[in-house]
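Chains adopt folds. We examine one example:
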Amino acid sequence: MAASRQSQAPGAIASAAAAAKLLEKKKEYEAVVALERASAQFLKRIEGLGEDFDVVADAGIVHGQVMEQWPNMFRILSLFLAQREQNADEEEGSTSAAGERLVRVPIEELRQTDPKPSA
């Protein structure tokens, strides 16, 4: 019996070593699969950030275009205010000189629409 045990021992050791090596390779494979999964999720997140940055960049362009228009807006506003002030000065000059303002009252139309009682 001792001889048969001796012959089985090296095979059992080899089989145990192969099983241990197989277990190690399985763990290594599972780690690689987990790493791939994590990498894919990381890639999706980075792509999402890239899209968000594109939106922010587009918003920056629009913001720049709006800011570019403000000097024109202030120029137009100052022209409008100057014109309005000039018109107000002209109106004040004409009305303050005479102190009167002419108003047209349509008396003829009032006479035609008012029925006079004949009592």
Summary: The longest helix spans residues 2-98. Residues 16 and 52 are 54 Å apart (CA to CA). Confidence is low (pLDDT under 50) at residues 1-7. The helical segments are 2-98, 107-113.
